[in-house]
Amino acid sequence: MGRCRQPKQVEAKVSIHKGTLYVVATPIGNLEDISKRAVVTLARADLIVAEDTRHSGKLLQRLGLNVPMQSLHDFNEREKSEAIIQKLLAGKQVALISDAGTPLICDPGFRLVQRAIAESISVTSIPGPCALIAALSVAGLPTDRFLFNGFAPERGSARRELLESLTQFTSTMVFYETPHRIADFLADAVAVFGGGRQACVAREITKLFESIYRDSLGNLHQLLTSHTEFQRGEFAVLIQGAVVAEERSRAEHSRLLKILLGNSLSVKQAAVIASEISGSGRRELYQLALEMTQNRRSGDEQ
Length: 302
Ligand code: SAM
Hints:
- By secondary structure, the protein is of the alpha/beta class.
- The chain folds into three domains: 20-129, 3-Layer(aba) Sandwich (Cobalt-precorrin-4 Transmethylase, domain 1), CATH 3.40.1010.10; 132-239, Methyltransferase, Cobalt-precorrin-4 Transmethylase, Domain 2 (2-Layer Sandwich), CATH 3.30.950.10; 245-297.
- The protein has twelve helices and ten strands.
- The strands form two sheets. A five-stranded parallel beta sheet has the order 3-2-4-1-5, sandwiched between helices. The protein has a five-stranded mixed beta sheet with strand order 6-7-10-8-9.
- Helix 4 packs parallel to helix 5 and helix 11 (267-278) packs across helix 12.
- The longest helix has 20 residues, at 282-301.
- The chain starts with 7 loop residues before the first helix and ends with a helix.
- The structure holds S-adenosylmethionine (SAM).
């Protein structure tokens, strides 16, 4: 990739070709997770574009690499991208990395990639670690469809507004969270979605204190607020989507049972008749009828 000396003729030929922008994933904790292709690509690059060059410098040092680096942040991406594009147009090979994981996933790089595409520069992925995908793969929640929300807004009202817009969303939802906001985020999630939804808090994935908590949202909120050390580290939070069909049939069953129980039938009789009418299981309806009568009794007592 242009680092070794070439005969003059070949050099002239190479310089009329555009370089390639390599989007390279780096570890999210465990340095062993860097791929061989990532190391080779970084070693051969003419330039490595990173968020925090001091942070990424340590990774390169561990890999024994000494390649020129340049920083690129969200706040300066627009102007910095132009100089990088010029280098790519001049035939330089550029590798884009972020502090951790996959660039562009809640990290800078989008404008640079967009500009490169607009200039018909080849953009190639060197895939690897990504907290979102790692968390999804172990959460035990459906992965066939999911929504990645990145970080929820910092302000409580904006955060609740976002969560409220997702109450009917039926697929798994994934959020990134910081240690100082994880408790507030979970409190809001319980308030908006209810404590019963299944969820997963994936903390410090691939690191020494990796902990994957899988439980109902309510229990996870309780657990994480029970000890402040549970709130340390980096988090991905996954929440089960709305189980619309189940909720709807539960509402219909309740309506049916309410009529039957209101006509002086016993729990068992109501369950049998409701099962005949709806085609749903007797045991499930019996359980629901029992809950309804118990709730009614405790309501009468208060
Ligand atoms: N580009 C990264 C990726 O591919 O996942 C994400 C960068 S974003 C600025 C950082 C956030 O990702 C953290 O605040 C946390 O929510 C999540 N994250 C990163 N590493 C993590 C890890 N090891 N365990 C859990 N979450 C992590």
